[in-house]
Amino acid sequence: MKLIRHGRSGAEKPGIMALDGTMRDLSSYVRDIDGAILNPDGLSELAAIDPTTLPKIPEGTRLGPPVSNVSKIVAIGLNYSDHAREAGMPIPDEPIVFMKAPSSICGPFDNVILPRGSEKSDWEVELGVLIGTRAQYVNPSDAIQYIAGYCVANDISERHFQLERSGQWVKGKSADTFCPFGPWLTTKDEVPDPQNLAIWLELDGNKYQDGNTSTMIFSVTQIVGYVSQFMTLLPGDLILTGTPPGVGFGMTPPIMLKPGNVMRLGIEGLGVIEQEVVAWSD
């Protein structure tokens, strides 16, 4: 099942993808796609609906982030062995956990806005994990039970803010529009093995990232279990699981985002998202 949210920013409505690829409106069944509907019972109710009985969403309608009211975004750094080598950093013994502000969320095809003072903004394609059930002190062997589904995410990062201005990574990760994700939430029943998915990113038609989730240092279930030891994960929370090699600051010389760039990124079975880069405007 693929769940979407459609419409103008701030007024999105719930929807679902039919098997024929058409988008259908779910407003007659649920108010929104959020933590309240991502539990197993809620998803079972949605799965019982025949999408072909629902109104079609007009082609060209904007897609918003597929989940609303995300209480927190938890991200994992250096979680691909080949990316850690690219960054010149040691393989971590435990997951490196940082946060992104929920205000950084935008739709999967919305513009990414370079923040005021940006010098070194960069891209990172990542497998996103959406939590469906409240998770606290979860054993990794049970962690799959707490996951609602998966998505494609772009962990945009301003490296100058993140690495060169002291403090924590969060300030280089949290500008408005720095967390586009989607294009839909693919429920976990459609992803039998999240640890064997091709993952890639193109900039202006040139492929820079081309990896596979099999090279993750810590698996999806290990990450969910680990993070739940330090904070309660709530339904609708988004976890970003790390990026493969090929980010801009790892290039020689580094390649940083500039207005007019177009990022296109995808994960096997989860769809493709795309963002144009624009300059900050007062």
Q: How would you characterize this protein structure?
A:
The chain has four helices and 17 strands. Strands 1, 2, 3, 4, 5, 6, 9, 10, 12 and 15 form a ten-stranded mixed β-sheet that branches. A five-stranded mixed β-sheet has the order 7-17-16-13-14, with no helix packed on it. Strands 8-11 form a two-stranded antiparallel sheet. The protein has helices spanning 40-47, 81-86, 159-163, 220-227, and strands spanning 2-6, 13-17, 23-25, 73-77, 96-100, 105-106, 112-113, 121-122, 125-131, 147-154, 157-158, 179-187, 198-203, 206-212, 238-240, 262-267, 271-278. The mean pLDDT is 95. The longest helix is centred in the first third of the chain and has 8 residues, at 40-47. The protein is mainly β and 282 residues long. It has a single domain (67-278), classed as Fumarylacetoacetate hydrolase, domain 2, CATH 3.90.850.
